[in-house]
Amino acid sequence: MSKISNPVIYETDYSYEAVKSLEGGILQEVGPNAKYLLDYPTVYIVHDEKKSREFSVYIGETSDIRQRTKQHLIEDPKKREDWESLANSDNSKMYIIGHDYFNKSLTLDIENKLMMYMSSIDSVQSVYNRRTNQQKEYYTVDKLDEIFSNIWRKLRKKNKTLFPVEKIIKDSALFKASPFHKLSDEQIQAKDKVILKIMEALTRNQSGELILVTGEAGSGKTVLMSSLFYELKQLAQEESENIVLQEANSYLLVNHEQQLKVYQQIANKLGITSKKVPNLVSKPTTFINNHTPEEKADVVIVDEAHLLWTQGKQSYRGKNQLYDLMDRAKVVVAVFDINQVLTTEQYWEEEELLTLEHEANLKGNFIHLENQMRINASQSTINWIRSMIDDRKINPILNDIKGYDLKIFNHPKELYEAIKEKAKDENSGISRITATFDWEYVDKRKPENDDYWRVKIGDWSLPWNLQLPQMKEQKRKNRNLSWAEQEQTIYEVGSTFTIQGFDLNYAGVIIGPSVKYRNGEIVFDRSFSQNKKATRQRTLKNGKKEQFSDMLLKNELNVLLTRGVNGLYIYAVDEELQKALINAAKG
Fold it and tell me: How far apart are the C-alpha atoms of 404 and 218, rounded to whole Å?
């Protein structure tokens, strides 16, 4: 197999003076390989370091770098402020990237991948691109990843701040939720269908139209919604050729503090939100309080719609957030997984939910995502996890042909040490320990006889999440990071409240005493749970109060067991459950 050649990269000032001598500079510096920059399709990055370690970037591709650069410097500043800013800055630089494999499709994919990487980097404040360019199959598609990594490594030699190690980027929550991910065929079909349905509803001037997207944990729902939101924003631009979606206003909502941070950062970097329009990405209550049924938004996308409240509470005066959103929007796209409802205030009565699904189905507005995209395991391992959650059975653990690391530990300390080892290894990515909510934790109040609220098992203990103190510099750095991305959280135990919606490379799960094993099956014992939002009663529409802890505690376990991309480490407090798991590990 022939070795893929190295990319050709030329760095220059981004100015009219530099462009005048661009061809001569390339010929002089690059020599015989200059043809890959002057005669082949190229990818280029224009960047400006506005403050120390704060960059604005534009990524493009072209078949004529001379002509395109002149256009950017002379014509584009007349129409766009971002190009004016780049042209007028004394710090603007440009990298031109060439390769003997480059064709139109490959350069478009490289451009898209650079947009995905650079919008996930801490030091990049703004990415000025306005389109995605995902390509399907083409002659050199199988070389894309290798060529891209070679390009990235060579760029990194030129600027380590602007181009960090690939692994660091891939571990970031921003990267994992990026709208620039290459979508699967299933995701592309779903997105195209949603956009078509939105256009139909807006053309007919409908209101309160619900498009329901369902799928289990790890089925790619977040990336799909991120991509959909970004595309709707591009189609809404003044220069858009889509007359239905041109100037349509779209909002992205999520009822989860950690996930909201991620979406807000993506929107800020891509210029979707600004001081003029700050709340395009927000929590549902913020949207509801700022909009009336008389002045409806065009499109509202709700990620993690299973976290919407279905009853009033102190901070929300309505009765059902989904219905309030449908009252205030022409179209609501809701991503829903019944197996991730975690509290009584999110509970849906079965008949009501079936009615919503049935109505969406009748209108062709129901989409189900089948594929599992998170857990990098063979089907036998996925079946084992699903059987433990859905069937409450513990089957023998089979050898995973893909190398997924499913282990049962004899002691929580051993599990924690193994997770710490994985977290230390740069190639293993982010690994953290989590637990069912079976140990007391009271937000904003310290325990009387301890330094922190802790998960305690025998003589081993570790603080619950969101408690460890941070130095001022660390606090500033952590402000935009999800819980798992923060360095100090390796010394804490995560919960569904910090980890839902995210993934870990290796997930350590301590199954607390609320999950037991009796007579050959898993049972849930609410008397051992500290999750009052799951164990309290819920008042139904008919006025009756009922318990739903069995379902909600099962869902808690579901969320925790489906976080690990490459590995899942388990320890159970209940003796019979631990014994059954150890026996299962023997195959």
Answer: 15
Q: Which residues contact residue 344 at a Cβ distance below 8 angstroms, ignoring those fewer than 6 apart?
A: 533, 534, 536, 537, 538, 548, 552
d(CA 182, CA 80): 28
Closest CA to 484 of 307, 258, 314, 329: 258
Distance from C-alpha of 196 to C-alpha of 191, rounded to nearest angstrom: 9
Q: How far is CA 31 from CA 34, 75, 343, 587, in A?
A: 6, 30, 65, 62
Domains, the chain, in order of start with CATH, read 8-164 (no CATH), 185-369 (3.40.50.300), 379-585 (3.40.50.300)
What is the Cα 146 distance to its own chain's centre? 24
- Angstrom CA distances, 350 to 353, 358, 528, 540, 541, stand at 5, 12, 27, 11, 12
Could you list the pLDDT tens digit for every one of the 587 residues in the chain? 468 899 999 999 999 888 889 999 999 999 999 999 999 999 999 999 988 889 999 999 999 999 999 999 999 999 888 889 999 999 999 999 999 999 999 999 999 999 999 999 989 999 998 677 777 777 788 899 999 999 999 999 999 999 999 988 998 999 999 999 999 999 999 999 999 999 999 999 999 999 999 998 888 999 999 999 999 999 998 778 899 999 999 999 999 999 999 999 999 999 888 667 778 999 999 999 999 999 999 999 999 999 999 999 888 989 999 999 999 999 999 999 999 999 999 999 999 999 999 999 999 999 999 988 789 999 999 999 999 999 999 999 999 999 999 999 999 999 999 999 999 987 777 999 999 999 999 988 999 999 999 999 999 999 999 999 999 988 988 988 899 999 999 999 999 999 998 999 999 999 999 999 999 999 999 999 999 999 999 999 999 999 999 999 999 999 999 999 999 999 999 999 999 999 999 97
Quickly count: other Cβ atoms within 10 Å of residue 387's Cβ. 13
Query: Distance between CA 238 and CA 246 in Å, rounded?
Result: 6
DSSP 3-state of 211: strand
Gap between the Cα atoms of 390 and 388, Å rounded: 6
Instruction: Tell me the C-alpha distance between 587 and 585, whole Å.
Output: 5
What whole-number distance in Å separates Cα of residue 371 and Cα of residue 188? Answer: 13
Other beta carbons less than 10 A from residue 67's beta carbon = 10
CA distance 484 to 422: 14
Structure token pair of residue 72:
């950017």
In this structure, what token pair is assigned to residue 399?
């050898």
DSSP annotation string for 498-524? HHTT--EEEEEEEE-TTEEEETTEEEE
Angle between helices 22-30 and 65-74 in degrees, nearest 10:
140
Say if pTM beats, i.e. exceeds, 0.90.
yes
Measuring CA to CA, how many Å separate 248 from each of 132, 184, 296? 19, 26, 11
70 touches 124 (CB < 8 A): no
Both tokens assigned to 133: 């360019």
